[in-house]
Structures are given as structure tokens and as C-alpha cells.
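In practice, a research group might receive sequence data for several interacting partners and want a quick structural hypothesis before committing to experiments. The following worked case mirrors that situation: the sequences arrive first, and a predicted assembly follows.
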Amino acid sequence: MDLDERKFKILQAIIDDYITTAMPVGSRTISRKEGMGLSSATIRNEMSDLEELGYLASPHTSAGRVPSWRAYRLYVDQIMRVSSLPPSEYSLLRSIFSSRMGQMEDVLSSATQALSAMTDYTSVMIAPQMRSIARIQLVPLTSSTALMVTVTDEGVHKDSVIAVPAGVTPDHLYALSNLLTERLAGKDASEYPAAIQELSREMSGQRELFARLMDSLQKQMEPDAHSVHVAGAARMLAHPEYSDLKKARSLLSTLETQDKLAKLLLRRTGVEFSVAIGPELSEEGMQDCSLVTVSYRVGSGVGTMGVIGPTRMHYGRVISVLEAMKNVMNEALLPPGSRKESVKRKEEKHEGK
Amino acid sequence: MDLDERKFKILQAIIDDYITTAMPVGSRTISRKEGMGLSSATIRNEMSDLEELGYLASPHTSAGRVPSWRAYRLYVDQIMRVSSLPPSEYSLLRSIFSSRMGQMEDVLSSATQALSAMTDYTSVMIAPQMRSIARIQLVPLTSSTALMVTVTDEGVHKDSVIAVPAGVTPDHLYALSNLLTERLAGKDASEYPAAIQELSREMSGQRELFARLMDSLQKQMEPDAHSVHVAGAARMLAHPEYSDLKKARSLLSTLETQDKLAKLLLRRTGVEFSVAIGPELSEEGMQDCSLVTVSYRVGSGVGTMGVIGPTRMHYGRVISVLEAMKNVMNEALLPPGSRKESVKRKEEKHEGK
DNA sequence: AGTTAGCACTCGATAGGCTTGAGTGCTAAC
DNA sequence: GTTAGCACTCAAGCCTATCGAGTGCTAACT
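A structural hypothesis for the assembly, expressed as C-alpha cells:
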């Protein structure tokens, strides 16, 4: 079961080679490598062992070997070295954000595109899920409707139109906004029932309006799949694993179903770091893909971003780009002053199952 | 230049056949058709004429003929019969919307997906561009920041965080909201400069805040590419024109660049109906595509939706689906009471250049 | 004059056969 | 334990032959 150092070294060489060439790797290729000092025959023997142990597979008799997902797992967990992003790229990344402090959605959208451009894989990002809201505002629209807007420190969280009974004036709505905010803002979801109970008593004169408000509020607090950003899905077509149209189609339609992606990301939200390889994703149409995710923080909210590429992806590079992006986003999205010191990357690379 | 009736009939037969099979059409195939009553030799002569006139092309000597974009243009303008959507599908469509009267973005997203599913092509939709806003609301966040939210009758239009000078209280912001709304809401963009001029005088005591407000307002009024919905891009891979990976990739990355799509749609916003075929789109990577668009109305806003498919698309079907979708969305998005009678489809099919 | 049958010709697509070369696994010698 | 040597495998590339759908032209027919 355990691999001796030589097997390790050979496996690493095979994976490194395969990652860049996408072609089955033969024993001679490895034996010729600098610092290997072993003949192809010896490598063959070792490869044969590695195959038996489940780290390699051969597409057919006279082709080379291809790493299995177990090999990638090992690679990610123990072999790979992650270097941090070179300063030149780091500052390039920073420059993307410096220009615009606009709406959150725009920032996320640019970030997602940058992520994809820098890795040449598909990237995916979910907006920070706010744990608590800063304010609830009722905005008068017509005499019979109003807009209920929940707001966080970063901007509008959600909004919905509600009907209001006749006789409720804008000033009324303003006062009500203040009341709702006072009772509900800043609280954790667990504290809501009690607060709502109390509010219900105080507003017993306006049962109908109150019911509508709470109904909308509840809907707004549900996590929604809506805010998933995807970029660079077309890039996957450039990688040889998707020269088969059927595979390509199946992958791309998975990448289009936002709730599947949302689920994949939400499951990893709060996990600082995660790498899921092929079968571990248990998502049909992504069997040949890996997903690397990082969680990022914006104020009280936690979001997750990830890169989806073939299992044969440049894990090291992807991880360092994600790491950098997380830091840069933190800086860009936090108003100056409330900034925390940047956190050193921890050496946890295991998939948090 | 003019085509006699027989050439018309033959051309129609060729296009019909090619639309369903995607294979070059030969003379025998046409001569065997019901009600044609001509030998293949005669058809060949006619085809030869049609080729000279630019309506047909042959990929190589011994293949059949393929319609050119001119043929499709003729087809769409003069030959095609559009039947309205069968009631069963119509009500299916309606049922999608009946369940949810939620946020605008959700509705648009479902509509786009439905459009793609019903046509088996890619669909694209742009949110209604509001011409005037119903209210401007300033929502206090922290002691030094506030959220400026512009709102239409249908919900939040846009929002952005602004810094507020010390000493500005929530009540202050509320009063200011009312003032801004009174002076700016409901107005056309052309009336803004005058109103802003006047406001500027009145608020001369708060130059800094005023400048920030107007700055944000201006940004929010710019039309943005952000709200483009795309669905079913992966479906294009199923059509034989995109069995070539290079073409597929180029198309898909075009479909991913939202501002290109936004431009295509915005240019057609307000045009009731438009069909653009291949080269008419003048968009690299979409030379083999057609775009059919329809504009829809929601309150004071006008949005546009479209279907992108191969030039060899089922124009009739696509048009009837779009027509139906427009009507259904109208019903679904207008609050009951303010509903207009549904408009009969006009026979304008020309591309509005 | 328009239509059609007949025929030679073109050319992509498909299938079989051959060659090449990268790769393996095994064995025997070092 | 390592390596050289060798027989064997199999995909990929290439050539060739065949097939058939399709055209264009000409001559005969209505």
C-alpha cells in the first residue's frame, strides 16, 4: 500500500508529464528525465506496480500510462508544491479591481472572468451569503404597493414588491422600516423566531400587512441559486479531453445548470480550501473534471469561488491563483479601515467531506 | 432577378428539406416530392439557375445544393408561413409563470430557459430597460455610509453604496429621498439636466453629498450589459454545423461575452420583430447563425429577447414561440388591472436595420 | 420551347490492407 | 536489484479500391 520514495518520484514525473502533454506517458519518457538515472525497463517494472496499486491505468496495451484519480489525489495531498503567485501577476490581478468599486455583482463578474482568463479553465463563483442583514427598508411605490428591500453592509440583498392596505402612508412605511430594522437587523437567523413573535404582538393592528412582510422576508432569506457566476465555459473545449463532442456537450450543459453549480459551491462554503477530483464530485458529466474551491469573506458574508478544469489540471497554478484572488477580493470589497490582516495560506489541501 | 412561381416552389422545397436534414439537397430528392411532378433533370436546370442567382451554393461538384443566406432571407420574408403556437404548448408556457411572481430576475431566467428548451436553440434575453424611475431611496447603513437605491414599479433597478458626511441622520436621508423622488421620479432622461440644476441650487449647503449622489445616479442610469440572460448555449453543440470544434468554440465564447449579446439585443430593442441571418449579424463567430428577436414591454420598460440558432433554423417555429412568450410574459409581469389587450402579431418580418 | 431520359464524369465517404512506431512484458544476463 | 534484448501489441497514418449520390450535357420527345 505504501509507496517508497522511488515510486513517489516516478509517479510525480508521470503526472507532471501528463498534465502538460495530455498524452499517455511511456517508460522511456520518464527514464530520460533529468535526475532519474534508471533505465526504461526498471521504470516499466515500477509502473506495473503502480498500476496494480491503482495509481495508473493504461488505455490499451501498447500505449503509455495515464494517472488515475487516486494518483491526482495523492499528488494534491502530498506531492504537489504550491508556490504563491508571482508579484507581477498579483498586481495585475489587483489592477482589475482598483478601477471599480461599483455594484457587488459587477465585481464578482469581473473576478470570475479574471479567474478563468488566468487559469484557462472555467471558473465559477457564488455571491457571499449574508448571515445577517443591516437594514430592512420599505419603499413606497404606488398607493397600494411598496417595495421591501433587505440590505446588507455591501448593498441590496434582495427586494420584492408587496401589496399594502389602503391608508398606509409613506411616513408610515418609514416608521415601520425603522421598527423592523431595530428588531431584526444584525441578528442571526436563529434569533428571528423570538423577534418575530414579539413584533407580531406589537403589530396586531395590522395583521394583514405584517403577514405579507414576514412572508416576503422569509422568501428573501432563503439561499438562492440565482447568484452563480460562471465564466470561460467555452475554454473547456480547447482541452483535449473534450474533443469528444458528446462529452463536451454533457459538461457544458452541466455548467449551465446554475443550481447544480450552486450546490457544489454551497457544500464547500466556509471550507477554506477544497479539491475534488473527478469521481469525488459525483456529478454526472463532470467525471473528468476537478473542482478547486476557496471560500472568501466579505463583511459578515461568506462566498465561495472555484475553478473547474480537467482532472489533468495544473493544480498548483490554480490554487495559487485562487489564493491570490481571495486576498485581492478581500481587500477590494472591504471598505478601507475595516480591513483585516491578510491570512497566510494554510497547508490544508484535503477535500473537506 | 425575379423568380417565377416554379423556382419559388423548388427553392422552398430545398430549404424545407435542408432545414430538417442539414444535408445538401439533390435534384432527385426534390423531384420525388409529392406534388412536384417534374423530373430530376428539370429540377437540375432550375437549381442551376437558382445557383447563378445566388440562392443556392454547392459545397462541391457532386454534392447537392445548400441554401445561401439570401435564400433564407427570401424564405423568411416571403415564403415561410408562421402558424401560431398550438394551445397545448401555449398553456404549458403559461404554467411556467403562474407559480412564481417573484423577483424580475428569476422570471427572466425561467423565461430564457423555457425559450431555449422549446426551440432547442440558444436563447438570450435582456431585462427591460426602464426609461424612468419611480423612486430614489437612500437607506442608512453605517454612520458614514448609505445605500442609494433607484426603484421602478417592478422592483429595484440598481443600488450603490455611497459615503455620507458626518452628521447626516437617517431622518435627513429620508427627507432627502423624498426630495430626490419628487424632483426626478417619473421624468424622462431628457428632463434630468434641468431638474438637477435646480436641485443643485437647493442643496448648495451640501455640495459634497450632492456630488456623490449625482455621480451614483448617473452611473445607475447608464444602460448596462450586466442583465443579459443566456440559456441553452450547449444545445448548439448538438447541431451538425458545430461538429467542428473550432467553430463551436468560437461561437460559445461569443455567447459568453455578455456585452456583445447586449449590443445585439439593444440595437433591436423597440423593434417589434427582427430576423438577422448569418452575415447580416456581422458578428464574428456567428456567421452560421441567425438571430430572431422580439421586444417585450413591462410597464414603462422595454426589453428584448431572442433565439440564436444555426441559419438553418426552424424560423416558423421560433417566431411563434417568441410571439407566445412575449404575450405570456406581458400577462405575467403586469400586475392584474393594468393589463393591456394582447396585440395581434403583425406581418413585419423584415430586419429593421 | 420546354421537358425528360440517358450517360459520362466528379468527388466525398467508407472500408480494407500495409506500414510505422511507441509502448509493453518477459527473460536472461549483469 | 537492475538492465539489455527481444517478441509482441495496437493505434495512427497512409494508400488504394470501391461505391454512390450527385452533377452537367446532349439528344430525343411532346
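Before designing any experiment, note the following. Strands of chain A lie at 56-57, 66-67, 122-129, 135-140, 145-152, 155-163, 228-231, 273-277, 289-298, 301-310. Residues 38-42, 45, 59-63 of chain A lie near DNA strand D (CB under 10 Å from a C1').
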